[in-house]
Write a structure and sequence with these properties.
- The protein is of the alpha+beta class.
- It folds into two domains: 37 residues; 110 residues, 3-layer Sandwich (Rieske Iron-sulfur Protein), CATH 2.102.10.10.
- Helix content is 18%, strand content 34%.
- The strands form three sheets. It has a four-stranded antiparallel β-sheet, with no helix packed on it. Strands 1-10-9 form a three-stranded antiparallel β-sheet, with no helix packed on it.
- A hairpin with a 2-residue loop joins strand 2 and strand 3.
- It is elongated and about 105 Å long.
- Bound molecules: FE2/S2 (inorganic) cluster.
- FE2/S2 (inorganic) cluster binds next to loops.
Length: 170
């Protein structure tokens, strides 16, 4: 029995069709690459800006704050947390001086952060946690507090007290 050798040539795409497929595949790959690379390049060249909270909050009319007597005021402040803005309640102990200058203390003890209060009879700020005491201008009078009370930045515009971010402590 004679062997049958197939001498049929392998099926080959005509060069033009083959080139077309290669070009087509390369084109699709290029589009996929561009779909990934263009947004990445835009992100790298123009990074999105984190949302920024307003730094100053209008709180109270200066005329409503008694001079010389610490007054606790509450206000809403907006804080940037990553990409979102969070509105939260904040407080400050405000002391108006006779010359209308204002000091605003942040509400937490500088020892371990407890909320302190004003004690009228002793004329001091007193922290209930470990009995630190502070003078009306925030100096440490006793207890374990390592530094004076922290302060907010303040300004007065149009007779309204505005409270800004906490000042860096020394
Ligand atoms: S937290 Fe105020 S004295 Fe310790």
């Amino acid at each position: 029995m004679a062997e049958h050798h197939s001498h049929e040539p392998a099926v080959e795409l005509p060069p033009t069709r083959r080139n077309f497929y290669i070009l087509f595949i390369n084109g699709v790959m290029g589009l996929i690459g561009a779909a990934v690379a263009v947004p990445a390049a835009i992100y790298l060249l123009f990074p999105p800006k984190a949302r920024k909270a307003s730094e100053w909050v209008k709180t109270a009319d200066l005329s409503s704050i008694p001079a010389g007597k610490p007054t606790e005021i509450s206000f809403q402040r907006t804080r940037a947390d990553g990409w979102q803005l969070i509105t939260e309640k904040a407080t400050a102990w405000v002391v108006k001086q006779p010359d209308n200058q204002v000091i605003a203390f942040t509400p937490n003890c500088t020892h371990l952060g407890c909320a302190y209060h004003w004690d009228d009879p002793s004329h001091t700020f007193v922290c209930p946690c470990h009995t630190s005491a502070f003078s009306v201008d925030g100096k440490v009078l006793g207890g374990p507090a390592p530094r004076p009370l922290d302060r907010y930045s303040v300004k007065v515009e149009g007779g309204v007290l505005q409270i800004g971010p906490p000042e860096p402590h020394a």
